[in-house]
Structure formats: structure tokens, C-alpha cells
Amino acid sequence: MTMAAETATEVVKLSHSYVFPRERVFEAWTKAEVLGQWFGPHSHDCKVEEYDFREGGDYQIRMIPVREDHDCKGDPEADSVCAGSFVEIKPDERIVMTFGWIENAADIGETLLTIEFTATAAGTDIVLTHERLPNEELRRAHEGGWQGTLECLEEYLSK
Q: Structure pTM?
């Protein structure tokens, strides 16, 4: 572990409620062909290049800019690529994965992303926690990106 990872303490924690069953919301995170239809904020489309959805499996997602109004820390006209591996998968309950940028983005090192799914009377609540971000500026940038991603998931599920 690098010193930067040891001292990275910034956290994004977001929640979002959906009027859909927990199994359906969870399932949207499990298949590459589905994830590719909604993942990322409105400013980007995504292409899932690798998605081995199992504990220990790896993923790689290419974020393709489609609008200029984004807070990307790399070249705003170039693709960015995030990658990591799945640490824990509890069906319909939780996904824990490492997350880092490997192409055209700020070097945040290896961070940790946890998505928790809770069934409610109205549908499903998600709590998304992104830990180990290196500074406030990058925390804010990721917060905006994740907020947009959760909104895009709702739009996908509403179709």
C-alpha cells in the first residue's frame, strides 16, 4: 500500500430511493450489457470493457464524454477508464469493489466503493460509499459523478 492510500481519508456517501424491487435494482449492477446502458453521469456514456461479476473478478469501464459540462480531471475530450476488482458480493444486499482510474483522470490510487441495497415498503434504498479519496477536490468531483450515476440508474429502471 502506498503512502497516498494510507493517508487518503475523503469519503463520498450518497443515498437514493427507487420505486423498484431490490432484486431489480441490484440486478442492474450485475450484467455488463445492462450496466453499459446506464452507468456513469449524464455527461458520459460508458462502454464496459471487462466485467467479471464475482468476488475476485475484475472490471474495466470506459467513460466516453458526450457533454462538456463535467468535472473530469483529465482531458475533457478524451475517454477515461476506471478499473478494479470485486471484493464482496452479497446478492441483493451489497457490492464492495476497488475503484481506480487507469486512463485520463486524476490519480486517486486504489479506493473502495460500497453499494448497499435495502428493501423498503416503497421499493429500494441504495447507499453508495466511496472511501479513500485523496483530497476534497477529488471527493467533490466523484460526488457529482456518483450522484449523476444514481440518477441515470433511476432513468434506466423507469424505461
A: 0.91
DSSP β-bridge partners for residue 47: 62
A 10 A CB-CB count for 130 gives 22
Give the burial string for 3-27 (b: 16+ CB within 10 Å, else e). eeeeebebebebebebebebeebbe
Q: pLDDT tens across 106-145, in order? A: 889 999 999 999 999 999 999 999 999 999 999 999 999 9
Q: Which residue has the cell 462502454?
A: 47
Other CB atoms within 10 A of residue 66 CB? 11
CA nearest to 37, candidates 27, 5, 99, 108: 27
Q: What DSSP designation does 20 have?
A: S
Alpha-helical (H) ranges within the chain are 3-7, 22-27, 32-38, 136-158
Residue 33 CA, distance from chain mean position: 16
